[in-house]
Design goal:
mainly alpha; 5 helices; 169 residues; globular
């Protein structure tokens, strides 16, 4: 049965929202990647997390659908770069022998975050309102940014507090 009226508009809106999040990645991604290549990796990860948090906070507080779409583009800009740089950083945190395993575990975490995060986000949105989903994502982003600050050393410095990764698993 075809959707009509308000239902069709809602579904079209959801589709546009998902598209806008991914379009930030494929439209702005190559430009952002080239620009970020000149900076130290830890700094870039922290900056990308700040952009991710900002995009989600804008989404949480806006009452404008246009601004919500823009917030999704902002948050979407961070995805590819964060995981690409994160994979490089993961290999630097372990011995050469464990580099593949480090990247594998990072992407396994990404997969798990998507599976659990989408389900949790849907539950939060249904129970507490869609805005609260963006606030929770922002809070989790802040926790991740703080973990990067505390656990990831600056380039060439393996003495970050709490960093003692010698084996995985």
């Amino acid at each position: 049965m075809a959707k009509t009226g308000r239902s069709a508009s809602f579904c079209a809106g959801l589709s546009l929202l998902g598209f806008s999040s991914r379009s930030g990645d494929w439209v702005g991604g190559p430009i952002l990647t080239l620009w970020l290549a000149r900076f130290e990796e830890r700094t870039v990860l922290i900056g990308l997390m700040a952009l991710f948090i900002a995009g989600n906070l804008i989404g949480a507080v806006t009452t404008s659908y246009t601004l919500l779409l823009i917030s999704r583009v902002i948050a979407g800009l961070t995805q590819g770069r964060f995981y690409g740089i994160g994979a490089v950083v993961a290999t630097k945190l372990v011995s050469d022998r464990l580099a593949g395993q480090a990247v594998g575990q990072m992407f396994a975490g990404l997969t798990l975050a998507n599976v659990l995060g989408v389900s949790a986000g849907r539950w939060i949105g249904n129970a507490l309102g869609w805005n609260m989903t963006f606030l929770v994502i922002s809070a989790l982003g802040l926790i991740a940014a703080l973990a990067i600050v505390v656990l990831i050393p600056w380039d060439g410095d393996n003495s970050a507090p709490g960093l003692a990764i010698t084996a995985l698993g």
